[in-house]
Structures are given as structure tokens and as C-alpha cells.
Amino acid sequence: MKLLFDHNLSPRLVDRFADRYPGSSHVFLIGLERKTDLVVWVHAQTNNYIIVTKDADFSDMSVLRGFPPKVIWLRLGNCTTAEVERTLHANADAIIAFVDDPTLGVLELL
Fold first, then answer.
1. What's this model's pTM, rounded to 2 decimal places?
2. Segment 72-84, tens digit of pLDDT
3. CA 83 to CA 92: how far, in whole Å?
4. Average pLDDT score over the chain
5. Cα(first)–Cα(last) distance of the chain, in Å?
6. Rounded distance between C-alpha atoms, residue 51 and residue 95, angstroms
7. Domain count, the chain
């Protein structure tokens, strides 16, 4: 399982989760930071990423376009990278269950 962190999250998360989610990336690191959400969506779909974002846009796309890719929607408001990291670590089991469930396209984490 590999994650693709959206532009609204820190690229440092890639290194912080390298052991748990090897092969993950950030839109900035692969030159997609200024691309449309659709371009990011297609890249994630083509390369088997799960999109991690703080925006509702990818959740909306999942409703309209289906999945893959799956989306982890962090509904945390303004917060630090450390808070994002804690939330993802605290929900590791829920993330695994989400990835393994073929009927789910979006996981909302609060």
C-alpha cells in the first residue's frame, strides 16, 4: 500500500511513513503540485496510490468517478504536520481495513 500526499500536506510525511507505506510520494516530489485534481487522480489510479488529502475535492471525485484510487480524507482543519502524522498512526488499523474493503472508496479521519 502506498500513499500519495496532496499539496495541502507536508512532503515530509513521505519520509515519516516510509517504513509503514513504502513507495509513497507527494504531489510536489513527482511534479504534480500545480496540476489539476483530475491529473493527480489519474496518476494515483494509474500508479496504485491511495490519495491522502485535507480537501473534499477528491472525496467528491470518488463519488462521481468511482474508485480506484481510494481516498483518505483528513478532516482535521488547520493543524500541524505532527497532528497529521499522529492521526495517520492512530488510525493504522482503520486504514488497513479500508484498503482491504473493495466496497469503500473514501475513508474520513477526524
1. 0.97
2. 999 999 999 999 9
3. 14
4. 97
5. 21
6. 12
7. 1
Contacts of 36 (CB under 8 A, 6+ apart): none
Each residue's pLDDT tens digit, 10-51: 999 999 999 999 999 999 999 999 999 999 999 999 999 999
Distance (Å, whole) CA 9 – CA 95? 18
CA distance 108 to 51: 12
102: containing domain: 2-109
The residue count for the chain: 110
Look-up: residue for cell 500513499? 3
Number of neighbouring beta carbons within 10 Å of residue 29: 13
What b/e sequence results for 9-23 when a residue is b if at least 16 CB atoms lie within 10 Å of its CB, and e otherwise?
A: bbeebbebbeeebee
Compute the distance between CA of residue 5 and CA of residue 24 in angstroms, rounded to an integer: 8
